[in-house]
Amino acid sequence: MMVFLTRFLLVSNKIKGRFQAGKNRHRFIDQVRIYARGGGGGQGHPKFGGIGGSGGDVYVQALPDETLKNVKSSKREQRYIAGPGDNSKARILQGVKGRDLIIKVPPGVCVTDDNNRLLGDLNKVGDKVLVARGGEGGKQKNEWSGTKGTKGSFKLILKLIADVGFVGFPNAGKSTLLKAVSRTEPKIADYPFTTIRPQVGIVEYDDKRQISMADLPGLIEGSHQNMGMGHRFLRHVERTKLLLFVVDVHGFQLSPRHAYRNAFETINILNKELELYKSELVEKPAILALNKLDMEGADELLQETLEAIQNNTETSHSHPDMVEGTTEENGEVRKPISFEDVIPISAKDGEGLDRLKSRVREVIDEHYEKERTVEEESEGDVGRRATTGVL
Ligand SMILES: Nc1nc2c(ncn2[C@@H]2O[C@H](COP(=O)(O)OP(=O)(O)OP(=O)(O)O)[C@@H](O)[C@H]2O)c(=O)[nH]1
Ligand SMILES: [Mg+2]
């Protein structure tokens, strides 16, 4: 009894610790608020018609090897103010422009204003967006006194860019899988919330083709409402092209106080969490990996899970209205994800991983193929229209 109790206390302390770690100490910064103001314009020189220098601008630019941590200071809102334009002087009639400021961020950051209006997506190194414009230099039009720069508060939000995003409950084996298929060394342990920040690994195929995969902290029931590690990590799957569900075929129980969920229930809960967070997420191509097949009794559980998935797909196909009509209160999803494939694996032993890797690649390639066709078609339209115009 003592042994059991101590074990229980240890486990629950670890869970508690994880929650807190996520909140405070090792914070992975993926959102920062900043204040930016363009420099003021310099004074003009009415006597000689000299024009003041314009104020410097503030840009946010994606550059390699940057993190949002570099942007964040201890202050609640970091201030970025560009340099003022020089006044026009008798010797130098055209005032020199104020110094521009560049806020350096990693690629994958989107910039919004205070009302969450998107100003720009900085997807590639070099992409930049203007957030505050410098004031005009003094000239006749403004009675020779420079104008103020624009100002405002902005949010810099990091969304990881990876081809594949791992979605799963804690302890399902997501990090073990990432380690098995890439050269990354994520932390792996037998308790929930081992992973507290997203990590991207590169999977290289025999022909050197590379696909990036993001291991994310485990989701739990209520993640969309910011439970557990919260939905702040869910946004990282928004930009992935494929969702890889990693599910322990034995199901999951967060702690003795929480309900046990079998693998099929786990899949539905994940489905629901994604749908409630953003319904488009369930439209993304998805593959289901049922993990830990090396353990005893796993085969039977696998059969049960496969049957449950099969029945569910059939029901939703034959009674689409019924499924659409089910409410979220009774715990059912409105739109069951249709998986491109369901693959039994053992992330630990490597069983099934080759098949998983090649299916992932096929689905991603299909995705790129479709994107290309769509692009070509729309370019074709432009081309045709242009020709018609000439005729
Ligand atoms: N037997 C067996 N154990 C596995 C397998 N995959 C993972 N495990 C074990 O399951 C536990 C959890 O694995 P992780 O890879 O840390 O799980 P995770 O999904 O990343 O968990 P969080 O980071 O907490 O969300 C570890 O003890 C792993 O060794 C598997 O295929 N078979
Ligand atoms: Mg992990």
Automatic annotation (TrEMBL):
The keyword GTP-binding applies. One of its GO terms (cellular component) is mitochondrion. Residues 162-365 form the OBG-type G domain. Residues 368-391 are annotated as: Disordered. It comes from the Eukaryota. PROSITE patterns: G_OBG (PS51710), OBG (PS51883). The keyword GTP-binding applies. GO terms for molecular function: GTP binding; GTPase activity. Residues 26-161 form the Obg domain. Pfam families: GTP1_OBG, MMR_HSR1. GO terms for biological process: ribosome biogenesis. Keywords: GTP-binding, Nucleotide-binding. This is GTP-binding protein 10. It comes from Strongylocentrotus purpuratus (Purple sea urchin).
